[in-house]
Design a protein that fits this description.
The protein is mainly α. It folds into 2 domains: 81 residues, Helix Hairpins; 75 residues, lambda repressor-like DNA-binding domains (434 Repressor (Amino-terminal Domain), Orthogonal Bundle). Helix 5 crosses helix 7 and helix 8 runs antiparallel to helix 9. The relative contact order is 0.10.
Length: 208
């Protein structure tokens, strides 16, 4: 496993080298929650010693990005200046923002994406695995797609009776597929037969 001490502090936290104090704080809090003992992200990904090493490295990176030497107490009234100069970070390729780059910590613990080819039947479980492999929460997907979180979770469990009528569920599935970079028509074609089999027939709308 890569030694976390070798990674620049901004890379470990997944932020730009010139990030503001607020950005440093948010990144540290997010990763601390993600890597808490017993969390799904760390399950079977690293042993206890590696987990502790990662958490120590994250804390040291957090302090360094705030301009505080790692050995200084956090309650120090006046942070001392950084003791060594940090070399400039390589710039991301054109069109890629620093915030879009995966953190070194997140890259370690994210589950692997499922293998999908032209014969793979897309299921709710596969959709969830794809989402989790990209470090995306159900809340994040809900905000981006404007699909209620309860419907996203019902779709991933294939609890089709908890989903709305076909026309709405089809729109949800296709929007979610696009968000994950999948072919929307193919995903709906995989899911629709199970959706219809799990639900009572819908009454036809009579012309007025």
């Amino acid at each position: 496993m890569k030694r976390f001490d070798d990674a620049p502090p901004w890379e470990l936290l997944g932020i730009a080298p010139d990030a503001s104090r607020d950005e440093v704080q948010r990144a540290y809090e997010r990763l601390t929650a993600l890597l808490a003992p017993g969390s799904l992200a760390l399950y079977s990904a690293a042993d206890a010693e590696e987990q502790r090493g990662l958490q120590r490295a994250l804390h040291a990176a957090y302090l360094r990005m705030l301009g505080i030497a790692a050995e200084e107490p956090r309650h120090s009234a006046t942070p001392p200046p950084a003791r060594d100069a940090t070399p400039p970070a390589p710039q991301p390729p054109p069109g890629v923002s620093p915030a879009s780059r995966p953190t070194a910590a997140a890259a370690l613990v994210l589950p692997a994406a499922p293998a999908i080819d032209e014969r793979t039947e897309i299921t709710g479980t596969i959709l969830r695995q794809l989402r989790e492999s990209r470090g995306r929460s159900a809340d994040e997907v809900a905000a981006r797609t404007r699909i209620r979180r309860v419907f996203i979770e019902s779709l991933e469990r294939e609890d089709f009776r908890a989903l709305p009528e076909r026309v709405f569920t089809r729109g949800f599935v296709m929007s979610y597929a696009r968000e994950l970079g999948l072919d929307p028509a193919r995903v709906w074609a995989s899911i629709e037969p199970r959706y219809l089999a799990a639900r009572p027939p819908e009454e036809p709308h009579l012309p007025i």
